[in-house]
Automatic annotation (TrEMBL):
Domain of life: Bacteria
Catalytic activity: L-methionyl-[protein] + [thioredoxin]-disulfide + H2O = L-methionyl-(R)-S-oxide-[protein] + [thioredoxin]-dithiol
Signal peptide range in chain numbering: none
Residue stretches of biased makeup (Polar residues): 1-13
Protein name: peptide-methionine (R)-S-oxide reductase
Native species: Amycolatopsis pigmentata
Ranges of residues in domain MsrB: 19-143
GO MF annotations in UniProt: peptide-methionine (R)-S-oxide reductase activity
Enzyme class label: oxidoreductase
Keywords attached to this entry: Oxidoreductase
Keyword Repressor: no
Enzyme Commission identifier(s): 1.8.4.12
PANTHER family: METHIONINE SULFOXIDE REDUCTASE, METHIONINE-R-SULFOXIDE REDUCTASE B1
């Protein structure tokens, strides 16, 4: 089953904060990516090469997003996953910024920006998808 596509502006997040509250709870770097759809520089993120087993949560709200067993080496400069932890964990929406058409990945719980998803790149993953996610959007909770 595919993650849901956010085609209606009526779908609202389950975690809602004012912009001032988001600014208070996130560092300036986290805010720029999570709330303003920024992108961290390639190969600089804390989880790019991490092989630790565990669960990746949204850094803004703590919702479970991805699991380490779906993380793979894409050599693109950002952590890559072939599937979200749950089909309702993320929302996909069209992104027409920077003169391109891409698919943005948002946390379904708080609607924070996570990264983008790409298909058909030949990585040989079970879904043929690459969820290219900013490390700063995530928090790894290691398995016990």
């Amino acid at each position: 089953m595919e993650p849901r596509t956010d085609s209606s502006p009526q779908s609202s997040p389950r975690v809602v904060k004012s912009e001032a509250e988001w600014r208070e709870s996130l560092t300036p770097e986290e805010y720029a990516v999570l709330r303003q759809a920024g992108t961290e520089r390639a190969f600089t993120g804390e989880y790019t090469d991490t092989k630790t087993q565990g669960v990746y949560e949204c850094r803004a709200c703590g919702a479970e997003l991805f699991r380490s067993d779906t993380k793979f080496e894409s050599h693109c400069g950002w952590p890559s996953f072939y599937d979200p932890a749950d089909t309702d964990a993320v929302i996909l929406r069209q992104d027409r910024s920077l003169g391109m058409v891409r698919t943005e990945v948002l946390c379904a719980t708080c609607h924070s920006h996570l990264g983008h998803v790409f298909e058909g790149e030949g990585y040989g993953t079970p879904t043929d998808q690459r969820y290219c996610i900013n490390s700063i959007s995530l928090r790894l909770v290691p398995a016990e």
